[in-house]
Amino acid sequence: EVFLYNAPSGRLACASCNPTGSRPVGVEYKNIDEGLAGGNRVWPEGQWVAANIPGWTPYINGTALYQSRYLSDTGRLFFNSSDALVPQDTNGDEDVYEYEPTGTGPVTGGCSEAAGTFVPAARGCVGLISSGVASGESAFLDASTTGGDVFFLTGEKLVPQDTGSGLDIYDAHECTSVAPCPSPVAVPSVCESAGSCRTAPMSQPVIYGAPASMTFNGTGNQSTGQAAVKPRSLTRAAKLVRALKQCKHKRGRARTACERQARRRYGRVSSRGARKGGVAR
């Protein structure tokens, strides 16, 4: 079990004892799944364990430099328990718990004898940090100085963003006015068809107005009764240039005759109506 001793008051509290007063439901140390909550070779294999706190974190065999902060200065204590200490714990496996002596907790509440989680025998409040329904054990990792942030390892998907099947590290954060909880992140729904997976078309900017097909108000395409505008005819000089270009594709006498005919037909006309053929090639 996990006990908490208060030196100034000389008070000893069993933080992990079952609130009902029944004997604990323990497990042999060698049978703790994965060794996450029990640590590596902390207890003899045949030792029965109902609750535990993490040992020092080793970085090589037999050597460790860091111990998890499972106890705050106010007496807030975090531990792992294989015994179900609250009704929400139904998985029969290791879960992460919190014990608070009376007088601790956020400004808006905290542990008191009127709290629903208050345990008279422990003289404090016992609450569940992990879900209590995860398949497999959950394990306490570390906590902040005040205990307002609790980091634990679990295979349960506790937020919509967790879509994997492995273990994940979560932060159980105590929401206060100084450190409020972040807003939930909206997760887009999974598309079930090709149409629902496509990105929605972008709307036309307002500055360009509505497209013509939306603002047209009439009877559609029809004749207005007006004659079509005829294209502007070429001048005689332009016609002569075009004809002479066509004559360049001919050879010998055929080309000479073609050029003579072009000048006679499109050459400059004098005021008396006589034709002049003085246009140079």
What's the layout of helices and strands?
Blueprint: E1 3-6, E2 11-14, E3 27-28, E4 48-49, E5 51-52, E6 56-60, E7 63-67, E8 77-81, E9 95-101, E10 118-119, E11 124-128, E12 139-143, E13 149-154, E14 168-173, H1 194-197, H2 212-215, H3 236-247, H4 253-266, E15 268-269, E16 275-276
Antiparallel strand pairs: 1-2, 3-4, 5-8, 6-7, 8-9, 9-11, 10-11, 12-13, 13-14, 15-16
Helix pairs in contact: 3-4
The proportion of strand residues reads 15-25%
- Helices and strands, in order, run as EEEEEEEEEEEEEEHHHHEE
Radius of gyration: 46 Å
> Any low-confidence stretches, pLDDT <50, length ≥5?
273-281
Instruction: Briefly note the structural class of the backbone.
Output: alpha+beta
> For this entry, what is the oligomeric state of its chains?
single chain
Percentage of residues in helical conformation? 10-25%
Q: Based on DSSP secondary structure assignment, what is the total number of beta strands?
A: 16
Q: What composes the largest sheet?
A: 5 strands, antiparallel
Characterise the protein shown here:
- Residues 273-281 have low confidence and may be disordered.
- The protein has helices spanning 194-197, 212-215, 236-247, 253-266, and strands at residues 3-6, 11-14, 27-28, 48-49, 51-52, 56-60, 63-67, 77-81, 95-101, 118-119, 124-128, 139-143, 149-154, 168-173, 268-269, 275-276.
- With 281 residues, the protein is of the alpha+beta class.
- It has four helices and 16 strands.
- Strand 10 and strand 11 (124-128) form a beta hairpin.
- Strands 5-8-9-11-10 form a five-stranded antiparallel β-sheet, with no helix packed on it. Strands 12-13-14 form a three-stranded antiparallel β-sheet, with no helix packed on it. The chain has a two-stranded antiparallel sheet with strand order 1-2.
